Structure formats: structure tokens, C-alpha cells
């Protein structure tokens, strides 16, 4: 292949990348702009013009799939000898080659998972592990290692980094230290140690560094916004002060900072290399102008100086669809029907994806797609009823159902049973424990829904078993169900972004401005996965017939091109309604996300004044009413609703209706009694008898 043939068909910016054959070079490449095409043609052009030999090139990326694609494209361009590998694969190859020479003996065994070693570390520090806690602590140790934080420094640096440790930081540090001791004693290495040892061997043995640097003189790093400090250390060690380096990335697609990845190496590349040209790719070849326009709007309010304004290159396509549903089951049913319609129109099921923020959201879509006869594949997570915590919970519930009596209230019984598996009133801070909690919470909420319909524990267990046995489509070609994080790097003809409500997108754990911005970037990644068809949807209530108190994601503000709410999806003849404005805390003014906060009208941490006597009177009345109606107390009003009444002391029916959780039905049923108690609370106490002048 001639050099000019390599450049043929590239757009001006891609050609500029290809012709910049000497580093340092920084390429900022927006979603769908052909960055892989640009960097593979750059390598091929450098080889065909004699700038570098294929064997001297090391192209590094983050997944074996991406590395394989690089190798395949380079072969088609006539340069099959280029090494394209992940950081870990490249480091392991080098470490395995030099270890017998400079260290002696066999390379330590590689552990695929930290959990077995960490289990031993728990025993060493005399602590009983929980499965989900083990995974969360393992993830925390991984973060510490990639950010080069030692066990001695973990507690201080984790606090400075704003980490939400699954255990007290001092306990994590002890387990981290014990994990490292046991790993070394057993002659084991994990993925982070592979990178550490490769850098260490090169640093301590000059002959090793010289040989590796003689072999690799030309570096390309893809997805540079996802590099972590440990990977940067290894890259700098490979370079050894040289600068023949081309980096490619998009700071607007930084979504893994919780693992230690940071975009600062990409955004600060020209500070580190002042002579480096910065080439920007903004021509989007993946998506229609309608999808690209929406992606640009998502980032329009981002607090970033590195925002890229994409320019669509494809012909016009359908407008994005915004759909609002009464509840989550209706949303899942509507999405399944829309997917079926696309399939009937000729779109292949494998070219359709449903993307959600957390894995616990998958269950409703698994069931809805099965009911609609639409095949699906679940990517990146076990199906809901195949998750260990769900299987274990069903075993416990099945056992309890055998001895249950008709008088056992369903919802409290299920809450009690699931409490033994980790369902707490407040969710864990995050990680695997949070995912486990979300799954258990979904079971508890289903129990509450069925309890409201009169179901008992045996009926609930029968319903779970029915869902487990019937909801899974055969694992054939089908619609992809995936989390937004696992969809990075993929694309489909049609994408459904679901569950777009505040508290889910952005996720309730995102508190700082930086975390909120990462959630916005996550939505941007989801939008840019679509080539032509894009559907965005949300549900106002969790369950059928529930209080419609949810708010569409704040990231949707202004995306529809008009100030009013996006159009509501037609369903079952229900009336259209506008979306209420976000609720702000009446104390500090912060936007309220959780249902409990919205009911109270304030942040959970903000101070409040309330009539304690009124609250006790309300609770006593609720208890008597629940006993008379033979229903759990929360069916009348939840504790949070009673707290909100005691804080606001409504005087009229209109005031009472302003409290989330109180609708027309409950107003008609309980309004008079509640208002009567509130009026009594507001009346002054009787004056003592005697002379009003006090004489």
C-alpha cells in the first residue's frame, strides 16, 4: 500500500492526525468522529513513509475488544506487525519475559479476583466478611493501588478524595495491609501489581529498561481520558523521557473517575508537552443530526472548558422521542412495545439497546420484553432473578411462606426477612453493597405493591417464582439491556434511555458538583450510542397506582426546545399533565431529590421545628385507623408524611394536598380527621381562671 492510499478517504482533521507522524500529539476526538480510523491511519502512514518500523510501535487501549479492532484495522492497512494491547497485557508480556532473568524463578501466579485473598485477610484481622462487603473492599483496594495510595496513607487520602468507604477507613486500611501481606506470602500478583512490578523492574534494572525502550519507540494511547495514575506511571517509565507519544481521548466521556481514572492527563497534555499540536475531531459520522443536536444540548450546560461541539455528517433522521409514563411498569411496557415496533419495521433486535443507570432497573425490562415476546440479552450483569442475593432471598421467603399464617402482614414480614440479607432502612454508600441493597429493595417494594392488593406471603412467593421461571427470553440474538457504564464504546441503531428521573439520573449518591457533572457526561455517553433512533423516558411513580411525585432528570431541562415539559407518552387514555418544577429545600434552597425530602420540603440534614404533641397525636390516630381497617400503618400514612404534616400544620384541604403523598383519595378518606387535629394544635391553650390583669 502506498502512503497516499493510506490518506485517501480521510477528512481534513483525520488527515492532520495521520500526517502528524512524530509526537507528542494530542487528539481530542468527540463521540463518533472516527478516532480509531484516525490513529490507525496515522500508524500506517508512519510505517509506509519509513518513520517507524511496525515492531517499534506500541498502541495501548483499555479493552481486549478495542485492542483486537486496532490490530484488525492495521492489518487491513498493510501493517500487521504492530503491537496493540491493553496496559495489562503489554505489561504482563514484558514482566513474564524479564522476570526469570532479573528476579529468578517463575513469575508469581496471577489472581483474577481479589476476593479469595481478601477473605483470608478478613480472617487475619479477626473480622467476619459479608459477600457484598468483600467486593466493595476489594474495589476500594483497587482504587488505592491505582492511585498509588499505601495502606498507611489510605485513611487520610481517602478522606481527602471524598471516598465513601464501605467500612471505617481505618478498617479498610488494616484489611488492605493484610491483603498485601498475604498476597506476597502466597507469591501472587493482581492486575495492579503487574503494572507496579513492570515499572519497578525497569526502574531498578537499567538493562531491562534499555531493551524495552529500544524495542518500543513509538507510542499511541487510546481513551486517554480514562488513564489512572498507575497506568501513567508505567507509560512514563516506558517512554523514559522520550516524547514520541500520541494520545487520543474525549474529556466529555470521562465516566470512570470512581475507579481512579482522571482526565487531567489528557486535558493537561499540552502543559506537560508545550510543543504538542492539539487536533480536534468534531465531525460525527455515527449519528443523525437529530441525535448529535441532542448530545450537544446535553453538554451545553456542562461546567467544562473542554466541551466539543459535534457536527453531524449523516443524513437527517427521526427526532428523539421524549416519553413520560405514570409508573415504571408502564414505562417498561411502553419501551418493549416501541422496540417491537422498530423490529417490525426492519430494525434488527441486535441493533437496539435499552440503557439504564443501575443494574437493579433491569428486572422490569426483563419481564416486559418477555411479555412482549421480544428477545433480549442482558449485558454486564446477572439477570435479576439470577443474582445471588435475589436467589438467597427467595429461598428464605419460600421457607417462611410454609409456616406463614393468614394474619402475617406481607410487607413487614418481607422487610424483616430481607433485613437478615442486608436490607437496611438507609442504603449503603455505594459499590456492590449498594447494588445488593437495590436488588433487595426491589423485592421489598414488590411486596408492598402486592400487599396493597391483598396478597399474603405464599402468594408473594408464588409471584416471585412465576417471574423467575417465565420472564427470561432465550439467550438468542436480541435487544441489549445494559447499564450506561457498560455501554461505553458501543453503538446501536436505536437506543432507549430509561428511568431518567432525579435520584437515578443524576444518581442520588452524586452530591458534589464534580459528581453531578460526571452524571451529565454519563447521559451524554448514552445519547451518543444511538445512530438514528433515540428514545428518552421516565416514570412519575415507581409502582402502578403510586404517588406521581418523581421529577424528570434535571439534565432534560431545555432539551425539547420549549420551556414546558416534554410530551407525555399516550397510555391507557390517561390525561396529559405538565411536569411540576423541581422542589427546593425551604431551609437551604438545595434541589430535593429523594421522595422523603420532597415530602418534608427540606433536606434530611436541615433543622426543622414541629409540634411534637401533634406528631404523637397523628401517630396514635394512624395506629387506631390501621387497626380498624386491618391494614399496616404505613398504608394510612407513612412516618415521613406524618412528619411533614407536623412540620407544616396545614389549615385547609388545599394545604394538605400540597404535601407529597396525600392525594384526593386520602384527602377524602382522612382529610377531615387530620385537619381537625391540626386546627386543635394551632389553638391557644386555655387561660387560667382569674383576673385578666393578674391582680
- Looking at the structure, what is the overall shape? globular
Q: Total helix count?
A: 28
Which stretches are poorly predicted, pLDDT < 50 over at least 5 residues? Answer: 471-476, 561-584, 591-595, 685-695
**Amount of helix:** 40-55%
Question: How would a crystallographer describe the biggest sheet?
Answer: 6 strands, parallel
Which percent range describes the beta-strand content?
5-15%
Number of beta-strand segments: 16
Strand order of the largest sheet: 3-2-6-7-1-8
Looking at the chains present, what oligomeric state does this protein adopt? single chain
Q: What average pLDDT do the residues reach?
A: 84
Please compute the radius of gyration using only Cα atoms.
29 Å
| Structural class based on helices, strands and sheet pairing | alpha/beta
C-alpha termini separation: 113 Å
Amino acid at each position: 500500500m502506498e502512503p497516499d492510499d493510506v490518506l485517501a478517504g480521510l477528512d481534513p482533521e483525520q488527515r492532520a492526525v495521520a500526517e502528524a507522524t512524530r509526537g507528542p500529539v494530542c487528539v481530542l476526538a468527540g463521540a463518533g468522529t472516527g478516532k480509531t480510523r484516525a490513529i490507525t491511519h496515522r500508524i500506517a502512514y508512519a510505517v509506509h513513509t519509513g518513520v517507524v518500523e511496525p515492531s517499534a510501535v506500541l498502541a495501548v487501549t483499555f479493552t481486549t475488544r478495542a485492542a483486537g479492532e486496532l490490530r484488525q484495522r492495521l492489518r487491513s492497512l498493510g501493517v500487521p506487525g504492530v503491537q496493540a494491547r491493553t496496559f495489562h497485557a503489554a505489561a504482563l508480556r514484558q514482566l513474564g519475559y524479564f522476570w526469570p532473568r532479573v528476579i529468578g524463578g517463575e513469575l508469581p501466579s496471577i489472581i483474577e479476583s481479589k476476593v479469595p485473598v481478601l477473605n483470608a485477610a478478613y480472617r487475619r484481622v479477626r473480622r467476619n466478611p459479608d459477600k457484598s462487603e468483600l467486593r466493595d473492599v476489594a474495589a476500594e483496594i483497587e482504587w488505592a493501588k491505582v492511585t498509588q495510595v499505601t495502606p498507611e496513607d489510605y485513611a487520610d487520602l481517602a478522606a481527602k478524595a471524598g471516598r465513601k468507604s464501605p467500612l471505617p477507613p481505618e478498617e479498610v486500611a488494616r484489611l488492605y495491609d493484610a491483603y498485601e501481606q498475604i498476597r506476597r506470602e502466597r507469591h501472587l500478583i493482581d492486575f495492579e501489581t503487574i503494572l507496579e512490578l513492570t515499572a519497578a523492574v525497569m526502574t531498578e534494572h537499567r538493562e531491562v529498561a534499555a531493551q524495552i525502550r529500544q524495542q518500543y519507540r513509538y507510542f499511541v494511547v487510546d481513551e486517554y481520558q480514562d488513564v489512572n495514575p498507575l497506568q501513567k506511571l508505567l507509560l512514563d517509565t516506558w517512554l523514559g523521557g522520550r516524547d514520541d507519544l500520541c494520545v487520543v481521548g474525549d474529556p466529555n466521556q470521562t465516566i470512570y473517575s470512581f475507579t481512579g481514572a482522571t482526565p487531567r492527563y489528557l486535558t493537561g497534555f499540552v502543559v506537560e508537552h508545550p510543543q504538542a499540536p492539539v487536533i480536534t475531531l468534531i465531525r460525527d459520522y455515527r449519528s443523525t443530526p437529530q441525535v448529535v443536536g441532542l448530545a450537544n444540548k446535553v453538554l451545553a450546560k456542562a461546567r467544562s472548558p473542554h466541551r466539543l461541539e459535534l457536527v453531524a455528517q449523516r443524513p437527517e433522521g427521526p427526532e428523539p422521542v421524549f416519553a413520560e409514563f405514570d409508573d415504571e411498569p408502564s414505562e417498561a411496557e411502553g419501551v418493549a412495545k416501541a422496540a417491537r415496533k422498530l423490529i417490525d419495521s426492519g430494525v434488527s433486535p441486535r441493533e437496539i439497546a435499552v440503557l439504564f443507570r443501575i443494574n437493579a432497573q433491569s428486572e422490569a425490562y426483563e419481564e416486559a420484553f418477555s411479555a412482549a415476546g421480544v428477545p433480549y440479552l442482558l449485558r454486564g450483569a446477572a439477570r435479576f432473578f439470577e443474582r445471588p442475593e435475589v436467589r438467597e432471598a427467595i429461598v428464605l421467603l419460600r421457607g417462611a411462606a410454609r409456616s406463614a399464617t393468614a394474619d402475617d402482614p406481607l410487607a413487614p414480614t418481607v422487610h424483616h426477612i430481607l433485613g437478615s440479607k442486608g436490607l437496611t432502612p438507609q442504603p449503603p454508600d455505594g459499590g456492590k453493597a449498594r447494588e445488593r441493597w437495590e436488588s433487595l429493595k426491589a423485592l421489598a417494594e414488590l411486596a408492598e405493591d402486592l400487599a396493597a392488593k391483598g396478597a399474603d406471603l405464599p402468594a408473594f412467593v408464588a409471584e416471585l417464582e412465576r417471574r423467575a421461571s417465565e420472564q427470561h427470553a432465550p439467550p438468542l440474538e436480541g435487544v441489549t439491556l445494559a447499564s450506561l457504564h457498560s455501554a461505553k464504546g458501543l453503538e446501536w441503531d436505536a437506543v432507549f434511555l430509561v428511568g431518567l428521573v432525579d435520584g437515578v439520573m443524576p444518581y442520588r449518591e452524586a452530591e458534589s458538583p464534580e459528581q453531578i457533572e460526571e452524571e451529565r457526561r454519563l447521559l451524554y455517553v448514552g445519547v451518543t450510542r444511538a445512530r438514528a433512533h433515540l428514545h428518552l423516558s421516565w416514570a412519575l411513580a415507581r409502582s402502578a397506582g403510586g404517588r406521581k411525585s418523581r421529577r424528570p432528570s434535571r439534565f432534560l431541562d431545555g432539551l425539547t426546545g420549549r420551556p414546558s415539559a416534554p410530551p407525555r407518552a399516550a397510555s391507557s387514555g390517561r390525561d396529559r399533565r405538565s411536569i411540576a418544577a423541581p422542589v427546593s429545600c425551604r431551609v437551604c434552597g438545595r434541589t430535593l431529590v429523594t421522595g422523603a425530602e420532597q415530602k418534608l420540603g427540606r433536606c434530611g440534614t436541615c433543622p426543622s421545628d414541629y409540634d411534637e404533641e401533634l406528631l404523637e397525636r397523628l401517630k396514635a390516630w394512624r395506629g387506631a385507623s390501621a387497626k380498624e381497617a386491618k391494614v399496616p400503618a404505613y398504608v394510612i400514612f407513612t412516618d415521613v408524611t406524618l412528619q411533614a404534616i407536623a412540620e407544616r400544620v396545614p389549615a385547609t384541604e388545599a394545604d394538605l394536598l400540597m404535601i407529597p403523598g396525600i392525594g384526593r383519595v386520602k384527602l377524602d378518606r382522612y382529610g377531615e380527621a387530620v385537619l381537625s387535629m391540626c386546627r386543635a394544635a394551632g389553638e391557644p391553650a386555655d387561660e387560667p381562671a382569674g383576673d385578666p390583669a393578674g391582680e
